[in-house]
Amino acid sequence: MDALINGIKVPHELLGDLKETHLGETDDTSLRNCLEQDGYLFLKNVIDPEKIIRARNDIFKTLNEVKELKDPFSDGIASGESIRDQIHKDRGVFWKNVSSTKSLRDVTNGNVLESVFTRIFGSSAKGFDFIFLRAVAGGKFTAMHCDAGFFTRKTEKVLTCWLVFTDITIDKGPLFIIEGSHKYKDIFQQFKGFDVDLNKNKKATIDKHPVQFAQERNTKILTAEFKPGDALIFGMYTVHGTFENHAKDKKIRLTCDVRYQPENEPQDPRYFGHNPTGTTGAGYAELNSARPLNEDWHTR
Question: CA-to-CA distance for 75 and 52, rounded, in angstroms?
């Protein structure tokens, strides 16, 4: 199977494997050292599979009710159709409700992840209330970027956790990380202090194609074949994106991004509380996943 980004095949020699960190065999100091050294922590099977399946089925059932997934919905096969807008007049309200699914929140904002991030930070951790649930159908991918421009308005002590709810082989569009990119001084200087909401004349996306970007820097594009319950944690200046979902079986990729920070750091009100407004103030309506599965995505 090939890795594609925007229709362009990624040469196999550019691909590398993410290095797994074993939580049970790693003390807290070593966890922090691994994150600082590699720019990420790849944790396999960190979430109870039963909790993952429960959340996935709840979300798939909702997508099936708007005719975006075929029967049986548990297979996660895109139908190419949608009646989402006919049933739900407000896309943001619909996706907020999906994102508030209790079984999902038990994972994203539950004790397991809170404990992992408390170990990493060395103090009590708090997860963002605004989460980025992504149901990804064929032809879609997330453009290469780093997260600083979205989440560092109040504090830079923020980490992203990319959670996996479906089997993600290379053809289903897994996340990738540019090896060593968290130490790129030019990327740090380009995006430090940048706020995608306030600096509207500048984009968060790195325009250069990841293949060219990696080749010019003589580095690898790191990824893995992910399983439900896996998690990938990384910092605000780690350059990443996703490959394109071009799976022939039409199965969607279901993942969720949730951010964590030390509880004693200032909280950005856009992402915390009962009704957070999100990056731009548009709430959950601003997210690509608020669009029906058969609709194209925007990029920032």
Answer: 14
- Residue 104 to residue 107: CA distance in whole angstroms: 5
- The CA distances from residue 284 to 43, 92, 179, 186, 270, in Å, are 28, 5, 31, 32, 11
The series of mean pLDDT values per 10 residues for the chain, 300 residues long, is 94 98 95 98 97 98 98 98 97 98 98 98 98 97 97 98 98 98 97 95 94 98 98 98 97 98 98 96 96 88
Q: In the chain, at which residue ranges do the beta strands (DSSP E only) sit?
A: 4-5, 8-9, 15-17, 40-43, 125-127, 132-136, 159-164, 175-178, 221-223, 231-234, 240-242, 253-262
Q: Which residues pair with 226 in a beta bridge?
A: 168
Strand order in the sheet with 221-223: 15-17, 221-223, 175-178, 240-242
β-partners of residue 164 are 255
Distances 178 to 72, 170, 202, 237, 286 between C-alpha atoms, Å:
37, 16, 22, 11, 26
The radius of gyration of the chain's CA atoms, rounded to the nearest angstrom, is 18
